[in-house]
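Support reply, case 0932

Customer input (verbatim):
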Amino acid sequence: MNAEIVSVGTELLLGQIVDTHAPVMAQILAGAGIGCTRRATIGDNWDRLVGALREALERADVLVTIGGLGPTVDDLTRDAIAAALDDELETVPEMEEKLRKFFASRNIAMSDSILRQAQKPKSARLIDNPNGTAPGLICEKDGKVVIALPGPKGEFDPMAHGPVREFLARLQGGGVIHSRTLRVVGMGESHVEDRIRELMDAENPTVAPYAHTGEVHLRITARAADVAEANRMLDPVEQEIRAALGRNLYGVDDTTLEAAVIGLLRDRGETIAVAESMSGGALGARLTSVAGSSSAFVGGAIVYTAAAKQSALGVSDAVLGEHGPVSAETAEAMAVGARERFGATYALAITGNAGPDADVDGKPVGLVYLALAGPNWVRTEQQRYRGIREDIRRRATQQALFMLREAVLP
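Our regenerated output:
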């Protein structure tokens, strides 16, 4: 059994609202053992919406629409579903009475547009909406299922996680599609794929890599009778991947690189400080976003100018004058200064040019120097990153955390 999701609303196409509901719905479908094979976003246009629904119903067993169930003239979903199913709209008397009582209690005049919410395709039944006036719909006709959900989050969430989830579980008759995400750092997507290529040819569980900024995620997915059985199927695949990737695999599911690093430091009773120029505090923000990070994170300094590097971290005139603010020597001096001033086991430093233009010393965009100071040693790296300013900053903090993790791992 497969499904498609159609999100409805011109505001989605204009980028005025980000569609966060479709991913949630896809997860609910997977939890019921129903694979989502396609997602579409359609504006408030009758011909395009009806056409998209009819096309989806030719391919999918289950069609879920999100949005467009309200009372205004651009809320077309209810009518479009009826047209796509070659169904008639009918008024539900109990729903009409409920709407009349609701608006009368608030001294709001009733209108024909409001009463549209009491209509449904003949093959549909209503889903109660405790937080709004527009009910959802479950239509079953000619072996197809269409589920219509409202757009507002406070209305969508209770329906999707409640009656719709329960209906889908009964519809499929059991079974789940369950995934686990393995997080990899220090290797590119192509290198990861080379090491696990044979596993990617399997059909159940499946293994699929996808790149993120500065790391790679591997999604392993199993179809099974329940989550427990799915996990038993995923466990040996995870062990094979761990054997293939070794220390580059740093976490599972929601574990971030900063959380993994803080955990390692905490276990060893060690601490970290940071000295940031180009990254402007982003590295410290990532580390302190981890709950309980105060057990390992001591503090940091944002030193954007040469004068700040001198006064806050003790970077000398000689280093700055001979090598410039963007240099390996300055990064090393920043890391040593931060470690001494904050009394930490380790200190990370970042300096570079994130763009969009070459700096006053002619250092090109994307040139970054990182340094890690530890007890009686300092390591420096030069990196060249491509991308927009935020990509460069993100990659720099990612590499800094990778350097620290490599130093702390036994």
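We compared this against your earlier run and they match. Two observations from our side: The domain at 257-408 is CATH 3.90.950.20 (Maf protein). The longest strand covers residues 176-185. Please reopen the case if you see a mismatch on your end.
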